[in-house]
Amino acid sequence: xxxxxxxxxxxxxxxxxILVDAGxxxxxxxxxAIEQFGDELEGQDxxxxxxxxxxxxxxxxxxxxxxxxxxxxxxxxxxxxxLKISAVRPEGAEELDCRxxxxxxxxxxxxxxxxxxxDFVANVSHELRSPLTSLTGIIExxxxxxxxDESARQKFLEIMGREAGRMNRLIGDLLSLSKVxxxxxxxxxxxxxxxxxxxxxxxxxxxxxKSNPPDIRFETxxxxxxxxxxxxxxxxxxxxLIENAVKYGVDGAPVRIRLSVxxxxxxxxxxxxxxxxRDQGGGIAPxxxxxxxxxxxxxxxxxxxxxxxxxxxxxxxxHIVNRHLxxxxxxxxxxxxxxxxxHLPAA
Length: 347
Ligand SMILES: Nc1ncnc2c1ncn2[C@@H]1O[C@H](COP(=O)(O)OP(=O)(O)O)[C@@H](O)[C@H]1O
Ligand SMILES: [Mg+2]
Hints:
By secondary structure, this protein is an alpha+beta fold. The chain has helices spanning 3-11, 31-37, 53-63, 108-143, 150-182, 194-206, 231-248, 301-306, 313-323, and strands at 17-20, 26-29, 68-75, 81-88, 100-106, 191-192, 216-221, 227-228, 255-262, 272-279, 327-333, 337-345.
């Protein structure tokens, strides 16, 4: 096989491939390798392609007799990327003067997913540890100093109840999140009467506190048939959004919810439903907005905690909306208020 034939074949591969001779010189780069490393490397030492000691060592090992070798390296150019370098000794390629076939695979996304997973575990542990620390402290106090103090006992039992509730909510939210993640690619099978679902969700807030119920106003514009969806999940979405609007809104100012039917919406083929939840709270500075749906992202961690938040509400909302092939929009003006809008396909 000629050099040119080999080049044509290797050019069909999307990963960079570099053929190296016994003297570590580059004999051939395929098109993907030329795109990544430039076209002036043929005939040069491999070091000019990847100036990384581990990558070089990997090639050296194959040149000095190993069947294959692998290395994972971090490259900073032009952005931080993680590359897997693998070198293999080809059999019977003496004709081409090729002693190592080096392939380069960009595994940044796998690396990032791994990183996200370990960050997530660290976050969960951190979130569980603080109520646990508080519970352990109280148990010690109740065993010792406050043993015979009835009023202290009452106070501590109350705190214990609160902390246990917090752990319970966190675990509930984690389970919800994992459930929607598992079903992420399965379309919901049910049909939902959205105006009724909204009425019921609003009622759970207004009936909860008899003395000082939040002012939530709900209106529907236009008439709507049943829409495809999972009723429990959609309830969870609007429950979360309304709860946030009440929590982070201003006491006494109304939360306004509007359901309207859109004949056309960007990104939707047919009719869509728009449900917006608007509060008159302090608003959200623009740089926070893209990050709000990240797990455990809170603008004011102390405030969220004090109000019983887990920081997972919007992450769950986003997953459910995605599963319904919908969109979530967040608009906010500092000092004026915030509107969360969910668009869902209506047919
Ligand atoms: N309506 C809102 N107004 C202002 N900030 C909000 C609003 N909704 C959400 N946020 C911010 O987004 C963060 C994440 O929300 P969420 O995921 O529901 O977590 P949680 O409510 O448990 O803190 C909140 O901690 C808060 O800082
Ligand atoms: Mg919330």
